[in-house]
Amino acid sequence: MKRIKIGKPICRGFWNPWSVEEIKKTPVIPPKPEARQVCVICLSEIGEGASTTECPYCGAIGHKNCFDEWIVLRGKCPLCRKILTPTST
Ligand SMILES: [Zn+2]
Ligand SMILES: [Zn+2]
């Protein structure tokens, strides 16, 4: 059985510009901000179809329960600190 040793370059100084170019071009895909919504209060993911409350001033979004509780306690948005009133439902 023949053994092939890998590690030593066959041709010294050989450089393939195309392979380098390909490595450079590898795109870094940024995470989509719309893909998952995170509650600004409990910082956990908001599942699809969950009832949410949104700040009318800055657009901060949170679970309806979290947001309502926060507003009752503090009376303002956790992000922009504008005065908010609890939603009456
Ligand atoms: Zn929450
Ligand atoms: Zn806000």
**SSE arrangement, N to C:** HEEEEH
List the ions, cofactors and other small molecules found in this model. Answer: zinc ion
Give the uncertain stretches in residue-range form.
none
The coarse silhouette is rod-shaped
Known CATH architecture of the domain at 31-89: 2-Layer Sandwich
- Total number of strands: 4
Radius of gyration: 27 Å
CATH superfamily heading of the domain at 31-89: Zinc/RING finger domain, C3HC4 (zinc finger)
Here the CATH topology of the domain at 31-89 equals Herpes Virus-1
Lateral arrangement of strands in the main beta sheet: 1-2
Entry keywords:
89 residues; alpha+beta; 11% strand; binds zinc ion
Describe this structure in words.
Helices cover 22% and strands 11% of the residues. The protein is of the alpha+beta class and 89 residues long. The protein has a domain at 31-89: Zinc/RING finger domain, C3HC4 (zinc finger) (Herpes Virus-1). The strands form two sheets. It has a two-stranded antiparallel ribbon. The chain starts with 16 loop residues before the first helix and ends in a 15-residue tail after the last helix. The mean pLDDT is 81. Bound molecules: zinc ion (2 copies). One zinc ion binds at residues 39, 41-42, 44, 62-63, 66.
How are the SSEs placed, and which strands pair?
Elements: H1 17-25, E1 37-38, E2 45-46, E3 52-54, E4 61-63, H2 64-74
The protein binds zinc ion (ZN) (2 copies).
